[in-house]
Fold each of these.
Amino acid sequence: LTGWPRDTELANGDDVSPSLEKSIEKYLEKIEARPDVASALANATAYSEGIPIAFGAHLPTVDLIGNYYATRPGTLSEVRWDMQLAISLPIFQGGAISSQVRQAESVARQFDLLLSQARRSGEQEIRSYFDSMQGDERQLDKLVETANLSKKNYEAESRDYRNGLVTNL
């Protein structure tokens, strides 16, 4: 089925154990590389940038508008272009803008909390998997020890059977 020659020797599974870190700190250092934590970090960074943007609405704005006319009917037919400079100062919008700044701060705090939750969740998951892996390694060691003891018991029983010390009654 495998296509290998019949005389191919199989390797013992004991020699092919993966090299795993024995310290959980190596795994916890890589928590920022997890996709869920990286996504939460990007969201928190993006929404924290919204605070200065919302605060910028307190500042005055200057607009320069220009038009060029290929043909212009009426009394201004000789004028081909015009420009307009518009300056707006949000004097009476301070309360609404302050509300938008507070809302942006609230949203940023919300996404910071989601980032913290993602980090805690990731750390809990890593610790859980690490404990499970250590338990599996201990179980594997005990199973290998049991297999070795069973092999020794089999050899002792077969030696006793060959010597006639055991009967099948």
Amino acid sequence: HTSTPFNSTPDAFQLHPDINLKVLRAYRAWLVAAFGYLWNVLVLTFALIGGGYGYTFGDWFFAVVFALGGVPISFWAWYRGLYFASQKTQPGFFQTAAYARFFLNFLAHVGMACWMLVGVPVVGDMCAGIFSLFELFGSDNYGDFLGVMALVNVVAWGACLGLSLRVGREALERFKEGGGVAELRRGRDAGVALASR
């Protein structure tokens, strides 16, 4: 009788060893982003319980929507996108398409991380970011408590952004080393040749 041990490691360890660390960094960046989405909801929940502090039920609702959508979509769209792109070791169309999927979704992730970090109240206060710190600290004791929670949120999104930028840089380097740029040029040249006929 043999038994297979439970594997609790992320998918990164199933890749080639030289890629493992880079994909593991992406996994960590995703974990921090997931924490940030959930912590943001917690901050807004406590703010509503304490009397609003400038937040409305609509802000809380959109924070919940961001968390319920952002966590699984970011996992599927950019983390799994990088994982699948890293599996493709032969340069060609499929590797280029996999990296294109990753970079497109990753840019949206970086934009969202910036928005959550700063929390500019342009379309609502659904992000407990840097702007929230100035509004919450000094209002009263409960406001200070919320300010500390918002500070944790800002640190989480700052760490997420830093990790994500490193992951993006490493993915771009791997894309270039794997012949992705040359494949894009070949595709462009083929498209120009077809258009000129």
